[in-house]
Design goal:
644 residues; alpha+beta; Ubiquitin-like (UB roll); BirA Bifunctional Protein, domain 2; 19 helices; 35% helix
Length: 644
């Protein structure tokens, strides 16, 4: 019937309802008042929308409650609106700009002459939580572009007017407003049914932020906050936040003497001896693992002319992110430091004719890369301008994709398990804008799916999020306090070998020329970011095999120094990273110093140790292993210092 729509529920059942019935009414009458009360937002045919929206066409409907992560994101968007309305009430004349939900919270930027003080944030937070108690409905309203512009001009909201005009310039005809109480905002939505769905709001900090992130624009005042469905979840989050502050790699990097930054080289780390030790261990470990898995290490130039970047397509689309180098002969910026390795590896593949017998051909490298990140985006080791990756490119026949994916995941599994990082897989498939035929994408996606099935891995399907040149697997790790980081990747690339790019071929078993598939893969990602994650994951207390100093020797008196030096030299000769603390400090002070630096073993040497040719080790954390012979300790250290 024309006045009916058919709704398909997640279990496959179908229900018919009068066209125009709101989603909330449908849920309450057709599913139950319990779910209607718990509902936060709906997903209709894959699109999230308010519960007050009418059902106008047949579709698949899913109701999201506080058990769904997406619902938490919605109430954080609600919270941003609540905070903005309170700010304008408490600070008349303040203009609003944008206020999105972000990972773990939200922010809102305000045009206000003076910064927010801590006392301001306390006052705003208190009023925002009162606004929750009022349970004001969020009301969606469709308006024309002219109506929206007229409204915000009348309210004196010049930033909102600019936003609306930008949206209109991109072709929008109908715009949406959201109101709660007497406050209104231009917003695409969706929102929860009312302010009461937001359990609790906590404001975290404030800072300056340029309008649209451009330093040439006006400085705004940004408020960061978070929201949860209940106070218990908020308190758990705040505890994690406090723990994260203790583990901050920037603080620990300085305290443990791992790395430093200097204004003379913004965005590039100075690796101190202890930090360099960690870097070297990880490099050598990955070299060992890749060699065992059939990779060949290569090195390519650090600087290339624009000819390469034009061929790869980066000169036109990525130039602003590259460090350009002046060519005095051509009298222009005609060269660039390389921001990625793949184009140079493609050149190397093409240096000679390849046969199917050569494939898969696996190139790995650890070359330094340079990307011209904005100064404001730099942050410790996680966002830098100079970095190195455990980068590799595999040139394979299409029939080899499944096996290469399996080999890669097994290698990645070994690495992440060794450092205690749990991971989840995301399987990203064809986007709307893509290269290649549907048949090609079918084969590539089937190859990756086959690898996941063969390994028994469950992956979150991310339709439409593949690269334009092929599908990919991404690996999100969870650290020791539950934070998630995107690290490893395995990307299938059909574009690079094409005639329009690098024209890569191999001679098949049939003596005809064929095109290989390029696989881009990394496990660490960048060394810098991976080390930052490990510092925070281990809170600076690295396992023995990775610790920059594996043992430090402290003597009870100066008469024990000769024996201690001999012990240090003996352990170093076996490749262990051992130091002797000869400073003129008390024994307890030197032991405490070793604990502060989180050194796995502190070896105390006194009269008995000298007489009986042994040591008395103490583990980081205080465990006293008592006296043992030098040979017994060497055996213990060798076992714990072995690469995984």
């Amino acid at each position: 019937m024309a006045d009916q729509v058919t709704v398909t529920l997640p279990d496959g059942s179908q229900k018919s309802i009068r066209r125009g019935t709101t989603i909330h009414e449908f849920v309450k009458s057709q599913i139950g008042p319990g779910l209607a009360k718990a509902a936060v937002v709906a997903r209709l045919n894959g699109q999230e929308m308010d519960l007050a929206r009418p059902l106008l066409e047949d579709g698949k409907l899913e109701i999201l409650t506080d058990r769904n992560p997406e619902a938490l994101e919605v109430i954080r968007h609600d919270a941003a609106h609540i905070v903005a309305s309170v700010v304008q009430r408490l600070f008349p004349g303040t203009q609003v700009t944008i206020g999105p939900a972000i990972e773990d919270g939200f922010y809102y930027d305000f045009a206000k002459e003076t910064p927010f003080t801590p006392e301001d944030l306390e006052r705003i937070e208190a009023e925002a939580n009162k606004e929750i108690q009022k349970d004001l409905p969020f009301v969606r309203e469709e308006v024309s572009a002219d109506e929206a512009i007229a409204l915000f001009e009348k309210l004196g909201e010049k930033y909102k007017v600019e936003i609306v005009k930008d949206i209109v310039a991109r072709g929008a005809k109908t715009l949406t407003l959201y109101r709660h109480g007497d406050w209104v905002d231009f917003c695409l939505g969706p929102h929860g049914p009312s302010t009461g769905k937001v359990g609790v709001i906590k404001l975290l900090s404030s800072s300056g932020a340029y309008w649209r992130g451009d330093s040439r624009n006006a400085m705004l005042q940004r408020i960061y906050g978070t929201a949860f469905f209940d106070k218990k979840a908020l308190n758990e989050y705040l505890k994690r936040l406090e723990e994260a502050k203790k583990r901050d790699h920037r603080r620990l990097g300085k305290e443990l003497e791992l790395f430093q930054f200097h204004p003379a080289a913004p965005g590039a780390a100075f690796w101190l001896p202890r930090g360099t030790a960690i870097y070297t261990v990880l490099s050598n470990w990955m070299r060992k693992l890749t060699a065992e898995n059939g990779y060949q290490e290569v090195k390519t130039p650090l600087m290339f002319s624009k000819l390469l970047w034009e061929q790869s397509g980066h000169w036109g689309k990525y130039k602003e992110n590259m460090f350009l180098v002046w060519d005095s002969e051509g009298n222009e910026h005609n060269f660039s430091l390389k921001p990625m390795n793949c184009p140079s590896h493609h050149l190397m593949y093409g240096f000679k004719k390849r046969s199917y017998r050569d494939l898969p051909l696996r190139f790995s490298t650890f070359d330094p890369l340079h990307r011209n990140e904005a100064t404001g985006s730099l942050g410790g080791l996680t966002r830098v301008r100079q970095f190195s990756q455990d980068d590799a490119h595999i040139y394979a026949m299409e029939s080899q994709i499944t096996e290469e994916a399996k080999r890669f995941v097994q290698l990645l599994d070994r690495v992440y398990n060794a450092v205690g990082l749990k991971y989840a897989v995301k399987f990203s498939t064809r986007p709307v804008q893509r290269l290649g035929s549907d048949e090609m994408w079918d084969r590539a996606e089937a190859a990756l799916k086959g690898a996941l099935d063969a390994l028994g891995l469950q992956a979150e399907h991310k339709p439409g999020e593949g690269a334009f040149y092929g599908p990919k697997l991404d690996f999100d790790v969870s650290d020791s306090i539950g934070r998630k980081w995107q690290l490893g990747t395995f990307q299938v690339d059909y574009l690079a070998p094409s005639p329009d790019r690098f024209d890569l071929t191999y001679v098949g078993e049939d003596n005809a020329e064929h095109r290989p598939v390029v696989i881009h893969r990394a496990i660490y990602g960048s060394f810098e970011r991976f080390i930052a994650i490990l510092i925070e994951h281990f809170a600076g207390a690295f396992p023995v095999w990775l610790a920059p100093v594996q043992a430090t020797i402290v003597t009870v008196a100066d008469r024990h120094l000769d024996y201690a030096r001999a012990m240090r030299d003996r352990l170093r000769a076996r490749g262990f990273r051992v130091e002797l603390d000869e400073r003129n400090m008390t024994l307890n002070a030197r032991i405490r110093e070793a604990q502060i630096h989180k050194i796995p073993f502190t070896l105390v040497v006194g009269d008995r140790e000298v007489a009986d040719k042994g040591v008395s080790p103490r583990r980081y954390g205080g465990e006293d292993l008592k006296f043992m012979s030098a040979e017994a300790f060497e055996e213990l250290l060798a076992k714990e210092a072995a690469l995984p």
